[in-house]
Amino acid sequence: MCLAAHTDSTILTFLHQSNTEGLQVFREETGWVTVEPIPGALMVNIGDLFHILSNGKIMSVVHRARVNQTRSRISIAYLWGGPAGDVEIRPISKIVDPVELCLYQPITWNEYLRIKYEVFDKAFHAIRVV
């Protein structure tokens, strides 16, 4: 099974993958780059909420999982973040420069997920119509 290109909605994602390639990250300068599995290592992805907390200084990672045609691949992810309830997420005040504006308004995780779903849903339907 593969996963289309996306960013994780969480703060951080911890990923353990088998010794089979499949994970790719997108880099503006080079395009899709395969992440070589390192035995016993955890891969850590920055998620969208971390991006908001850093006021856009640290980007969330665009990534995808590709099917390996010759070997089975197993990955186990732990998605950390997204406080429950009405806890608002906003850029950390100590990170925002006094002359710099906050790029993000306070938002709860549920609100963020709803907005992200609506954007992806509209994009998906626009692609299917074309």
UniProtKB/TrEMBL annotation:
Per its record, what are the GO molecular function terms? Answer: dioxygenase activity
- Cross-referenced SUPFAM superfamilies: Clavaminate synthase-like
InterPro entries per the UniProt record, alphabetical: IPNS-like_FE2OG_OXY (IPR044861), IPNS-like_sf (IPR027443), Iron_ascorbate_oxido_reductase (IPR050231), Oxoglu/Fe-dep_dioxygenase_dom (IPR005123)
Tell me where in this chain the Fe2OG dioxygenase domain is found: 1-82
- Say if the entry is tagged with keyword Calcium: no
Query: Which species is this record about?
Result: Noccaea caerulescens (Alpine penny-cress)
UniProt name for this protein: Gibberellin 3-beta-dioxygenase 4
Give coiled-coil spans as residue ranges: none
Q: Which UniProt keywords apply?
A: Dioxygenase, Oxidoreductase
The region annotated as signal peptide is none
- One Pfam assignment: 2OG-FeII_Oxy
**What superkingdom does the record give?**
Eukaryota
